[in-house]
Structures are given as C-alpha cells and as structure tokens.
Design a protein that fits this description.
Strand content: 5-15%
Low-confidence stretches: none
Shape: elongated
Strand order of the largest sheet: 1-2-3
Structural class: mainly alpha
Largest sheet: 3 strands, parallel
Number of helices: 20
Length: 463
Amino acid sequence: MAFICRFAPSPTGPLHIGGVRTALFNWLLAKKNKGKFYLRIEDTDKERSKEEFKKQIIESLSWIGIKHDDKEFIQSKNINKHKEVAEELLKKGFAYKCYCSEEEIKKQKEKCKNQGIPYVYNRKWRDAKDVAIPKDAKPVIRFKSKISGNTIIKDLVQGEINISNSIIEDFVILRQDGSPTYQLSATVDDHIMKVSHVIRGDDHKINTFKQKQIYESMKWNIPHFAHIPLIHSEKGSKLSKRDKSSTINDYVKIGILPDALRNYLLRLGWAYKDKEIFTLNESIQLFDLKGVGKSPSKLDMSRILSLNEHYIKNIDEKILFEFLKNYSQKFKKAIDPSKEDMIVKSISFLKNKAKTLEDIYNNSQYILKEEITITPEDIKLLDSNSKKIISEFLEEFMKIKLPTKESLEKIVNSLISKHKTNFKGVGQPLRIALVGSRFGPGIYNIILSLPKNEIEKRISKAS
C-alpha cells in the first residue's frame, strides 16, 4: 500500500504548535514508509484567509525540517469539484435541500440549550412531504446521516471507537451561497489526493464519523484514521493561540533551534523505549503510531529549554554561528561583519550555560558594542584599589606581543600576590572594565577575545 499523508492547515493565523506536531507525525509516517507527504492549504474561508499566513505556514514547516512533496494543494481551486460531489450526493438520495431559516435554526439551538441537551438539527426537510417551500428561500444542502445503528472506526491511536449514529446530525455540505463546508471539501480533497492515512487532533473525531459516511455514500476507499491527543498548556488547559508559547514563531524569536523543537515535539506524546534525543534520520526510522499515547500532552517550557541547551552544546559551532547570525538579523541587530571573526573564535565559551540563541547574543554584547556602559551597581565596585589593580594589569599586558592564557595567568597571579587579594579581587574589576558588569564569561576568555587596542581603550577609560 502506498502511504500518502497530508497536513491541511487553514491560513487564518500563525501556525499553531499543535499543528506543527501534527504535520511532523504525518511527515514522519510518510517518510518512514517511502510515501508522500502533501501540504494542503484550506483557504475556503475567504474573509479570514491571508497570503501572509500561508507563507508563514510554509516557512515554519521548512524551518523545522518538514518539506512537503510537490507543490502545495490549494483547496479553493477544487471548489467546483466539491460542488459536483454535493450534487451527486443529492441525486443519489444521500443529501437533501433544507429551507430552514437562520431564525428557525437559532430557535432550535436555544431550545436544546434550555433543555441541557446537545443541539442536533431536527431533520425537518429530510423527508419533507406537503411542506411549502418558502418563497425566495435559498436552501442549504444537508447530508442525510444515518439515524439508527452504530458506526465503528478502528483508530490507529485511540483503538476502536464506537458511537451511536443518532448523535450525528444531518450536517450541511453546501451553504446557502453555494460554498462547500469543511466536511465536504476535506473529504473530497483527501479522495482526490489519494490520502491513505489521516493523522489529526482528537478534536476531529466527530468529523471523521461524518466524513466516513460521505466516503461510503460515494463508494470511495476510506483512509486509515489516527487521532492524536491535543497539547495542553503548562496550566493543564487546552493550548490556545492566546498563549505566549502557542505558535512556532514564539519559539523562533527567543532563539530555539529547529532540531531542538522538532525533537521536543516528537517526544510530546510519543515514545520509543527510554530514548530522549533523536536525530532526524532516527526520527524517521523509529517513528510509528503505536508509540503515540492516548492522553493529552502538557507543554513544558523548561524541557524545551533544556533540549535546546543540549543542541547548542553539541551542534557544530560554525552552524551555530550561522543560526546566531540569522537570529540577530531577524530579531535583534545584525552582527557587524567586522565582528564576525571575534564571535566565531569566542562562540565556544559564549554558548556556555546558554539555553537559547538570545542568551548567546546577550553574552556577545561586550564584543558587538562599540562602547560599553558600566552599570551603576558595578561602578561602585571600582574603588581606588581596584582601579590601581587594573591599571597595573594593563601596563604588564601591553608588554605581551601575543597574549595567551598562560601569560595572562602569570600577570594575574603576580597582582594577587602584590595586593594580597584573591582571584576575584583582580578578575572582578577587570571584567567590569571590559564588559560593563561583574557578570559575564571567564576573564581570560574575555581578554583573549578582544583586540589588544580595545583592551587598552576599555581599561584606560575605567581606571
């Protein structure tokens, strides 16, 4: 069997992190089985769909390493085919025209609400006889859902799901203006695209039962369905677009690496033995739907940061610099080309304890800034004795042609002995003079990362 999976977002807003995980699971299943992974843009909501969101969806998936096969499918281009299928269902007796007004539907919903029961359309026009069609009324077309019996879906994640057909209303497939609804469009498109596996959030379970009836009525092959649990916020509620960590952009702008986020989303609701870190190839080789859990997954920002720190520590430093360079240009201030070599040379210690690219960028500020400013709290620490120490350090430092850690240690140890102090007594005022704060990278790393004339300028200014 050919494996064909798809991801079908609506371009009505930034790509949700739950959508990214859904796309990832579809992509991994397709790639593991040498199949195809398609991207379908469901843009039939013309009022809310925007080109900028479509572009953001494609860029976000590409950023995390998910490349779709062929060109993306644009749902609105298939509307005529959707309408044809609606007319065929009508012709075959699997659908009917409903002339209920919006006011009638509203009253039905209010009645159900007052009775404390779920709203189900009352099927007034399903087998209407001797009912006068309202003058100038434009009907919707409703699917004639099964009334009795049960329907079973063998879900690849949830197991066998059995529901009573009575709870599925006669849902609309064509609106009054002739536009198709999601239930119809998604089903027709999946059939046209020959989708073999539909992996989506478990909030789509009821949609699957509706769509299965369309498949059966049209005598089409029914794909395999897998409904994955939703992602919840750290507080345990359903993650919404209002949450600060709900879209992929929320992670990109704080400097999360794509491999780290992909690894996190892979493990969010899926497991393979006790393995935590997966390369992209391992993700493809080891992924299967049997490893997906049935319970909702809770977003854990601390775990994301921990994984990101792991990737920052282990990634090739030249690649890390390119990530930093792109991040700085997009979200901060572009790195001056004249400072690039200094950053590259220093990135091995600038990344120490960094959990994000933003941390590395902040650690690099003493290199990137033309002028450093000493904080008010730290300037108080530069007393007369501290100024004397750093002045004497500079005097000895300028005698060295090519500074090394060993030559710097010799000067520092000499000053410690002369002034009867400790390493902090020398290192702290030097760090304040060179980076503007008593906090920062190791003092030897700082000194060796800056040009000699810059060391002279900064210490002279501070002393």
